[in-house]
Write the structure tokens for this entry.
Amino acid sequence: MPVCVFEWRYGSREMKEVWDQKKRLKYMALVEYALLRALKEVGLVPPDVHPDALLQAVEEVSLEEVQALEKELGHDIMAFVEALASKVDEKTAKYIHLGATSYDIVDTVWALQFRDALNIIYKDLKDIIKKMIDLALEYKHVPMLGRTHGQWAIPITVGFKFANYVYEMARAYERLKDVERRVVKLKMSGAVGTMAAWGEKGLEIEKKVSEILKMKPHAITTQVAPRDSFAELLASLSILSSVMDRFALEVRELSRPEISEIIEGVSKKQVGSSTMPHKANPVTAEKISGLAKVSRSLVLGELENIPLWHERDLTNSSSERILIPHAFLTIDEQLKSMKKLLEKLVINIENIKRNLERAGCINLAERIMIYLTLNKGLARNRAHQLIMDAIRSYGSIEKALKVGHDLGKYLSHQELETLCNPSTYLGSYDKLIDRAIQYAKRVIGEQQ
Amino acid sequence: MPVCVFEWRYGSREMKEVWDQKKRLKYMALVEYALLRALKEVGLVPPDVHPDALLQAVEEVSLEEVQALEKELGHDIMAFVEALASKVDEKTAKYIHLGATSYDIVDTVWALQFRDALNIIYKDLKDIIKKMIDLALEYKHVPMLGRTHGQWAIPITVGFKFANYVYEMARAYERLKDVERRVVKLKMSGAVGTMAAWGEKGLEIEKKVSEILKMKPHAITTQVAPRDSFAELLASLSILSSVMDRFALEVRELSRPEISEIIEGVSKKQVGSSTMPHKANPVTAEKISGLAKVSRSLVLGELENIPLWHERDLTNSSSERILIPHAFLTIDEQLKSMKKLLEKLVINIENIKRNLERAGCINLAERIMIYLTLNKGLARNRAHQLIMDAIRSYGSIEKALKVGHDLGKYLSHQELETLCNPSTYLGSYDKLIDRAIQYAKRVIGEQQ
Amino acid sequence: MPVCVFEWRYGSREMKEVWDQKKRLKYMALVEYALLRALKEVGLVPPDVHPDALLQAVEEVSLEEVQALEKELGHDIMAFVEALASKVDEKTAKYIHLGATSYDIVDTVWALQFRDALNIIYKDLKDIIKKMIDLALEYKHVPMLGRTHGQWAIPITVGFKFANYVYEMARAYERLKDVERRVVKLKMSGAVGTMAAWGEKGLEIEKKVSEILKMKPHAITTQVAPRDSFAELLASLSILSSVMDRFALEVRELSRPEISEIIEGVSKKQVGSSTMPHKANPVTAEKISGLAKVSRSLVLGELENIPLWHERDLTNSSSERILIPHAFLTIDEQLKSMKKLLEKLVINIENIKRNLERAGCINLAERIMIYLTLNKGLARNRAHQLIMDAIRSYGSIEKALKVGHDLGKYLSHQELETLCNPSTYLGSYDKLIDRAIQYAKRVIGEQQ
Amino acid sequence: MPVCVFEWRYGSREMKEVWDQKKRLKYMALVEYALLRALKEVGLVPPDVHPDALLQAVEEVSLEEVQALEKELGHDIMAFVEALASKVDEKTAKYIHLGATSYDIVDTVWALQFRDALNIIYKDLKDIIKKMIDLALEYKHVPMLGRTHGQWAIPITVGFKFANYVYEMARAYERLKDVERRVVKLKMSGAVGTMAAWGEKGLEIEKKVSEILKMKPHAITTQVAPRDSFAELLASLSILSSVMDRFALEVRELSRPEISEIIEGVSKKQVGSSTMPHKANPVTAEKISGLAKVSRSLVLGELENIPLWHERDLTNSSSERILIPHAFLTIDEQLKSMKKLLEKLVINIENIKRNLERAGCINLAERIMIYLTLNKGLARNRAHQLIMDAIRSYGSIEKALKVGHDLGKYLSHQELETLCNPSTYLGSYDKLIDRAIQYAKRVIGEQQ
């Protein structure tokens, strides 16, 4: 009886595995193993205790078993510990979880899941950034209309447009890396953070667990890891999500039949609309934009989780069970959709050119204004007024000149023609593209 | 490989059934049935078409089948229609979905699900309100400390406290009823809302479907029902959720061992803490508070769904697939937890009394202030200053009088003693309780 | 040193007056007056007390005076009461605020401000709805492209588009009316809601204040009015805000030079862009959309204000000082901008017609599909496939027929031509427009 | 007619100056100056242009003047440029703003304001962290009850509690430093980001402006700086805000008269409550918590600003005018309130001790459990069950032992007494405190 759309429709296999309930038992067993091994190494438990046994035992633990025990005990971590204990020798069983609080396990499992999930995201992000770099280079010199307010502006190039997304996606990557330093952290400090149950050995145990799990500890904690960077993580995911939304919006707009410059292509078999069979709807881009709304929403809940009571209250527990996996699954579905969208992308050079020509000189008014200022000695605002008046009164500068508008005093028809060539009004677009790509490569290269 | 906590942990069977994928096929079949029957009745399809067959056919349609078809067609509603068509006679198959757009089905299914889900919520809400009315009446006359800013204030009664929640919960009920009028609405108007595919018969068809499904239509729509009240619905659920959060917070605070007045009781077997075995943690109340954070978050996503493009874009689709079911499942888990919490609630009369006595006369300073104003002719602010000074300087009014504070000029020890009896300083508490209960009964009685 | 944009740029005079600090003193004085008059009428204060004096005294109270007193006393309401008291005769001064708690004043002032602010909103909403009704009627029969997913869909009429906004704006009106019943409520019940300070007279006093202020009381309260409907109010404002966002988005999109159907016009003098003098940017529509983001945000803070502690904590105070006025000022700026936008709106019939022609028959594929199903005996899905194949393979149905596509077996050129006339494929658009207008008139007429 | 609470009540002088409208003119003039100087240095404008003149001219520009011009021109930046131009020699006037787009100015001004505002925040944060370090050290060894779920847990020390806040506040500092690298960035790239108006000189001009303003440029931009880190900035502020909320909540809870351990003290003159004169309400802490709700809300609006259209649309403009200054002013009021709260904080050692004693051995159950496991050979879960049963059946372990509970088989009265000393069950608290302080010092020392 599945009720959540991630069970049957959204989310990749690899990302769902990280958040799968069965897999979670293994994450928990790994942490219990690391703790028990540390306890043994520091001599707090006898040498004939077998930490390794936990890693095998968990294979035999079933979700049903844990759930049945939880129903009885009213506590999910204790239920798991009991189930695990029942599968190993008595001595090992006796020392599982010794001195730990549930959230030593839960929060360290979150950190392990964050690390694994982030690695999937980094991989997808790299693929996407690389693909966008390819597009930025391939279409580096192809002029197209810039658009501001939805109106025609001075020209850019197709590659320049992609280079901006390269930059923004690379920033999202960098941002996640920053968060990771704060949030992928070991929490192994007992019931209120003092490590009291381990006597003098707390820091030593923490150090060993840290080495086993290859994860640095928090400097200090309460019963739980601070939620500040949990919120930071969800915020950073939602920023990435919103950058993808921006790209998807770009495609959705440029796919309009009136514009038709950069289009989400469709396969022949796909049904566009149940009732309007001709429609080639940008459904993948629309899905990406839609999911961004979910991603933005989820940030709020985690921000509210920061102010927990004293050494903690439990209100983060139920909310995070929903917020965290859904945040990662949502971003995952978006990333996979981005890759699909980039594959399907149709860049229609002809339409791009045609629209640029349709705009004519009107979108190069800025250039004329600067020209009049620098070469004809007009003040910038006077030039601005003249051009504006010409366009508003006659619809185009060409026409205004013909009918003898004042502008003609400063501008010949030939000058106008030269100024109206978009290919020579692209500024430093190529060096800026290179700079953006360089930045992106440096950012994603840090991971190699 | 379940990844969503509502698959195994949260959510009642009845509420999950409403949002179950398999059940959704039946909702869809019901709408297709209603449409086909209407088409037949108005004479747009031949008389030997069999609408009833759809209701049987859907029993044979499997999720896997629909998903396989969707993979091929890239469109979920068309996939369902094809699957359904394959199970009925050729003629009936031919006319299924005729003239409808996918969102005639999808949005009408949402409305059907809203209606069913709201009915579950109303039922729970009634149970909770009735239980709270019982508590308000049972403890109507038991004085307890009022608390503002977490500090001791003048007394209320236990029943008065519950009566406030009766009022707030009944308001949540009334609010949902208001929203229902706007959101449980038929959407049967075709691809852009004009009913064009049905020629002159559109309004007649809509009327018949409306009668079959017992649901009034929107006055006008685009391709989709307006999302305004979808957002209103989620906002209203999150308000209800936050009122429950307020009650849960009340219990969590009053369960503190230092206060211990109204406590979430525990069963003997339940494990309080894996490492602190003595703990009787208010975990049910904490769950309710935790889920409220999720509920509040989800509102945002749906608010963003209101500004769809023109006759619609698809960005509401992916987001609503997540937002809507999770919003209802979250509130459902809270409601069920509220019922459980109310059953487990321990009202500790002794502690309530003891704390009231500990507060002594300090929390009745207001009364003394009024007394001095009305009976001794002091200005209100002068009285306020005198009392404040007495308390701040000597810790209690009694003590201040003993050491000869100026207050003694206006107040004898005997007067003080009389004024310090909380039972005679409860104002119109009983009539207010009755008024709140009356209001609540009227609100929930509207449904009977 | 103004720091808030509403001080110099946004917000109308009438709405700003409601939230003006100086005006707020008058609202407070009005409530103190009503209370004192009620106290006198029930005989709790002597007959020679002069409630009317308060209404005159407040004219002499300066903000500076109150702020100076607040600095001393650390309490804003007490500061105001002292300032007011200093302006009246000793006896009257003595009884001001008697038995009231600060929030009897604060919450009743909120309710008075809500009522006044809502009346401004209703007025603007009516104006906007009426203007939209005019447009819906004026352009009732002018066909235009429907658009879904940003792609061409079957036709609507310009009037039909406006009628949808008429409906959605009227729903926003109706929704606010529903909230008003719950949120514009008197709160006059003392320190914890029991009315204790007024002995047996509490309900009688409340009734008299209620009559004076023409405002019904809450059935019961704590120290404060329940925050549930404060949140509901902000949510409802943000829904209205988002509906306006939807309209603004419509205009921004249709103002694109490639579409240019419904355009935000500009005055000759207005500067479009500092550097691109030709630009006619839809800046008013963009402002409306921008402010909707603020409006949606503010809901969250008020949702968090619902779960206050016990008989109240103070955390709603600082947050509401920001959230509530800014929510109303934001919606006000949007409403005024909507009126301006509607005045400036250019409906370009020629472009509307041209785009419809450009779309040709492609957007009427639905109609052909239905025709083939009802008149030529094809199954709906077969018809769907044939048409889809024709369009995807040949770009248009006309061309497919010419080159001998299978579709030609069922469809002649002449039939195609007849089917391709958008004016005869508008369904029940006119009756639906009427129905929407009727609904809207009924809703806004309730106020007359 | 002030309507915004930051005009008269909240916000420090230094922070308000950053967001003051008059001051903003100076920021704008500074950017225009830097640009004009760069233009001159690269030889795009004649050598007898005087950039310095702009810095003097702005002193003469009045807000009224700019607003009047804006009313005429409908464009705020052009209005400012005109006003500025009117105050300098003709030649200089002619070249102001040459080749720039409005958002070269607006976004660089934002960056300058961010830098100045962040510096104020860093200063406050350092003060707060240092004060908290002092408290952590002063009360390092004073045992107090740990509290989880609001229930008594094993002991911590007062200093340990503060050290956790030291850590969380230092993390907030570190996080802001990370964001600063991405958001305090120069945007000087013209109308669509290509620098076209400056021909080949774009990058050179950008470099010079960058040196003058001491601010690195974005690698690439559209017409505007990417909004990703604007959202990141507001999210990071709201996380800091929520950490302060957590501290304020700590104080509010511990100020409850039943607990009374760490209290917000009051001055003698301050009025606690207008009607309950005895109240010593933690109003500063409540204000901090209240403002956090606002801070969390504002994040959403800026997240929505990320997906702008193409090379930009204007919807970020109106929303950021509200969101950004209010976000900074809110955090500023919180920071100043935190400093005040820390000054007023009363740490009541006696009550801390008394409550610890009241808890008796019950909160050390964990320790007994570990002891039984490690020293008496019981399995951890068996020990857990025994203790739980003892407490639930007899209320305390001491009593259970007395009446012959099974626990007595493993635990003598003397052992119990030794185990029940909280001072010997504090684990590595002191080293953890040191570690947290060390981390914090390193973080805030980076700025020296």
Summary: The first helix of chain B runs from residue 13 to 19. The CA atoms of residues 25 and 439 of chain B lie 40 Å apart. Chain B has a mean pLDDT of 93. Chain B is about 65% helix and 5% strand.
